[in-house]
Specification:
eleven-stranded mixed β-sheet, alpha+beta, 25% helix, two-stranded antiparallel sheet
Length: 226
């Protein structure tokens, strides 16, 4: 249960240059096709799920759905979906591209850190969000890289919370750190603004596949559609 919430400033200050809205050169606000998104992230082979679903028979769909729901009873719907996506590999549909663990890395040899990437886009193929997940054990190392890329200005909130194993229903104390970059980022090519946040824990449940505990960087478009 959430308790003892407080807000402070971590590494107060911000970079003199504009804070970027990108991950590996792929920025919120850019217009990019699924092929261009995957190419930017170093992926040459991925599933076109729009075509795959169009070719899928109802029997095939129902069988896959039943298998996922059965697994969801054991590990939870989020974990069941994640396992299925990991099995399928990199893929894009009509609103997003995702790359499971095992393909994209950050950092330098010999200490590369594997990440999972999710990119959302709208009907015009404008990128609206980029999520980057990584092992919770790599939190400090990734934060150092984020400081160098986005600047060291972060608003920090720590929440006393718990994490639960869905299968065993056992929970344990797990203080969660939430960081919001100050100021917001800006895409200098398009003029779009973005929020940049990082969480030391992405879900209230342990993942069913390693790494069991994951952190997440979220870069999101600041909407002007109001």
């Amino acid at each position: 249960m959430r308790a003892a919430v407080f807000i402070t400033m971590l590494l107060a200050g911000s970079a003199s240059a504009a804070t970027p809205c990108d991950f590996k050169g792929l920025a919120v606000g850019d217009h990019a096709s699924p092929q261009a998104i995957m190419a930017a992230l170093g992926v040459t082979k991925y599933e076109d799920q729009v075509a795959a679903k169009a070719a899928e028979t109802k029997a095939e769909h129902d069988k896959a759905f039943a298998a996922r729901m059965k697994r969801a009873d054991e590990v939870g719907i989020m974990n069941a979906t994640e396992e299925s996506e990991f099995h399928d590999g990199p893929a894009c549909d009509d609103s997003s591209c995702r790359i499971p663990y095992g393909t994209v890395t950050v950092g330098e040899q010999p200490f590369l850190i594997t990440v999972e990437v999710f990119v959302a886009f709208d009907q015009t193929q404008k990128i609206t969000a980029i999520d980057v997940k990584y092992s919770g054990s790599d939190w400090d190392e990734v934060l150092e890289m984020m400081n160098k890329k986005y600047g060291p200005g972060w608003q920090k909130e720590v929440i006393d919370d718990v994490t639960t194993n869905f299968a065993t229903k056992k929970s344990y104390a797990d203080p969660t750190t939430l960081l919001k970059h100050v100021p917001d980022g800006q895409n200098l090519k398009t003029g779009d603004s973005c929020t940049i946040t990082a969480k030391s824990r992405d879900l209230v449940f342990e993942h069913s596949m390693p790494p069991l505990l994951r952190s997440v960087l979220e870069i999101k478009l600041v909407s002007t559609n109001f």
